[in-house]
Design goal:
By secondary structure, the protein is of the alpha+beta class. It has a domain at about 30-65 and about 395-550 and about 585-660: Rossmann fold. It has a ten-stranded mixed β-sheet, sandwiched between helices. A four-stranded antiparallel β-sheet has the order 3-4-5-6, with no helix packed on it. Strand 8 and strand 9 form a beta hairpin. It is globular, with a radius of gyration of 24 Å.
């Protein structure tokens, strides 16, 4: 059965922006009397004003960059082994592991990362279907590989965006989502693998649709429609006729995601926040229209759920202040089962073995990369199946995450609203530490206590404290909190960073004169906005693939996801909102930035086109500011190739060291 994670993937996918063509390089936009820019082209990497790599620092950084991770994707049809994604070389590829801590047999060897794939559930089948794109374009294509012969064939048209792959219960057909019809809407297709490129859509409607789960007899498909982070719908579709029936048609303003059909096919297991602030599990009676809630009411979200193949067991995780807790439920009695204890961190990728006796999960901890663990349901034992290397580093020296809360500018029930944040500090440090504020993207994202080699490098090698806040607008803290930064309230989230600077100034071991801000995507916007609001209180900022002008951003986005972003940021077609968006955009206020900046961008970014970064670089230089620029010609929304990650990470490390030294003693 499919889990609710399709909805997460769809929301992430629908963030994609259309690439604006023929955007000028920032260098070309400089005034004639501007100083010379030191431009270096190294293969597919272009840097401007970035100094030569410090080899001593680079040697230390390589060890952190060599840290691997492993994520579970699927079981083999006989339950003997696991399909995982991990990296041996430049990019992540697919591997098979046939026993705990066994050798990883590499299956794919592409120059681009592959992090998604599913094995056919049919006994004796050697079919693997996976997706990948080129150069970070996110135009994912589906490929089938015969694991016996190694033969590979592309199943889709090579032009559209394809995602959300599901094998049918019998393993003879697949369901997937694609923009093939018009490039604007995401439709649902059902076909044999051979017919995937030519079949007509099962669901062809306006909006972003995707498959969630097949019924046991493969006669029906549970389908989701994403409208915004707070609004989504579920539909049951007859695979033969295409007839659609909406689940909970009276619920328009709720988050509604699917898990799968009940064993008898009479109900649907779903997740909804209709009963309050947080997402709960329920069973919806398709005939009677009633919902029976099957998870406890608590102030935390159910984040992922998975039904066993026979529908008798349900596994789900709850996001408790960022940490994941695993729960098991007997679907016959609807009583909870004792769950095994997993390492404390974040848990994802729930996958039941074909016989339902074991559950594979991916676990990431602040002090250890993501690895695959298998839970024996009856015995409540946990067995580690992969052990990812960390570049020969001693993980005992890694910094653990400490959860804190700090007061911000507004109040709840007469008391200052509290903003949660995770703090990482060097072990045994003394004196006042420089601070790196690391802001997540999304904007409907959440910083979790999971492993980051970059954070550990900053802490252990730069001697910095790292603070990772979940400002308003973050998920995981209820639907009211998610909506606190929408539309005209956008800069309220920036004010939360100002409140964090106030909090840092009260901490005896943190240096308020040596604080930098860093973030990617929406976090990149937050970095740029923080620099315009708090320039005098910050030593510098590093923005990756960040939005610099909301109007140019919205006007450049692909048709199929523009309305989704308008719900969050505001509709630029409305004159009053357009005026507001222009007024708060970092590009409009770039003249307020006098501290150093580092800007990082992928040339093929389909979410935040490179023009957003380059117009900001050009404006800062026009104002006489100091800005380093890193551009990767073979990357998109974030760097996925190890070589590019190395140069971007080194640029950040040298930048932080420079600005820390410029405002006190070096860290």
């Amino acid at each position: 059965m499919m889990t609710i994670e399709w909805n997460k993937r769809l929301r992430a996918g629908t963030l994609a922006l259309a690439l604006t063509a023929a955007l000028p390089l920032a260098l070309a936009a400089l005034p004639a009397d501007a100083r010379d820019v030191q431009r270096v082209e190294r293969g597919t990497l272009v840097t401007e004003d970035v100094p030569a790599v410090d080899e001593a620092l680079a040697e230390r950084y390589r060890a952190y960059l060599n840290a691997r991770s492993a994520g579970v994707l699927d079981w083999t049809a006989d339950g003997a082994g696991l399909l995982i994604s991990t990296r041996f070389g430049e990019t992540n590829q697919l591997h098979l592991v046939m026993q705990p801590l066994g050798a990883r047999q590499q299956l794919t060897f592409k120059e681009e990362p592959i992090t998604s794939g599913r094995l056919s559930p049919r006994a004796g089948s050697a079919d693997l279907i996976y997706s990948w794109d080129r150069g970070g374009s996110e135009q994912f294509q589906l490929f089938r590989q015969d694991l016996k012969t190694g033969a590979v064939a592309m199943l889709t048209d090579g032009k559209s965006r394809n995602q959300g792959l599901l094998w049918s219960s019998k393993g003879d057909r697949i369901a997937f989502a694609s923009t093939r019809r018009d490039g604007r809407n995401t439709d649902v297709y059902v076909a044999t693998p051979e017919q995937a490129a030519t079949v007509q859509p099962l669901v062809a409607e306006t909006g972003s649709w995707g498959p969630v789960a097949w019924s046991a007899d493969d006669g029906r498909l549970l389908v989701g429609k994403s409208i915004s982070v707070a609004r989504s719908q579920l539909w049951v579709v007859d695979v033969k006729t295409g007839e659609k029936t909406r689940v909970k048609p009276e619920m328009d303003d709720v988050h509604l995601s699917g898990v799968g059909f009940t064993p008898d096919g009479k109900g649907v297991v779903l997740v909804s926040d209709e009963a309050g602030e947080f997402k709960r599990l329920g069973i919806y009676d398709l005939a009677g229209g009633k919902t029976r809630w099957i998870s406890e009411e608590q102030p935390w979200d159910v984040e992922e759920a998975e039904l066993s193949h026979d529908g008798r067991l349900l596994a789900y995780t709850v996001n408790e202040a960022g940490y994941s807790t695993l729960h098991l439920l007997d679907m016959t009695s609807l009583k909870p089962l004792p769950a095994a204890d997993l390492p404390k961190g974040t848990v994802g990728g729930l996958r039941f073995s074909p016989d339902g006796t074991r559950l594979a999960v991916s676990v990431s901890r602040p002090t250890a990369p993501s690895d695959v663990f298998v839970v024996d349901i009856a015995g409540r034992t946990v067995t580690q199946w992969t052990r990812s290397e960390v570049g020969g580093l001693n993980t005992d020296s890694f910094a653990d995450a400490t959860l804190v809360q700090y007061p911000t500018f507004d109040k709840v029930d007469g008391k200052p609203r509290q903003i949660p944040a995770f703090v990482y500090k060097p072990q045994g440090a003394s004196g006042k530490l420089p601070v790196i504020i690391d802001i997540h993207g999304g904007p409907e994202g959440q910083t979790r206590p999971s492993f980051s080699s970059g954070v550990q490098f900053w802490v252990n090698e730069l001697g910095a404290a790292v603070v990772r806040p979940n400002v308003r607008g973050s998920t995981g803290y209820g639907k009211t909190y998610v909506g606190l930064d929408n539309g005209f309230k956008r800069e309220d989230s920036v004010k939360d960073i100002g409140a964090l600077l106030d909090w840092i100034a009260t901490q005896p071991d943190l240096d308020p004169k040596r604080v930098v801000v860093v973030g990617g995507s929406y976090g990149g916007y937050m970095t740029l906005a923080s620099m315009t609001h708090f320039n005098d209180r910050l030593a510098g900022g590093s923005s990756s693939v960040g939005i610099s002008n909301f109007v140019t951003f919205l006007e450049s986005t692909a048709d199929y996801r523009r309305d989704l972003r308008r719900v969050e940021y505001g509709d630029e077609r409305d004159a009053r909102m357009r005026e507001h968006l222009v007024a708060i955009s970092p590009l409009t206020n770039a003249g307020k930035i006098t501290k150093p900046m580092l800007i990082i961008q992928g040339a093929n970014d389909p979410r935040v086109p490179r023009g957003e970064s380059e117009q900001m670089v050009a404006q800062i230089r026009k104002n006489g500011g100091d800005v380093w620029y890193v551009l990767a010609m073979d990357e998109g929304h974030g760097f996925r190739k190890r070589t590019n990650q190395f140069y971007a990470g080194m640029a950040q490390a040298m930048f932080f060291r420079k600005v820390f030294a410029g405002n006190g003693n070096a860290g």
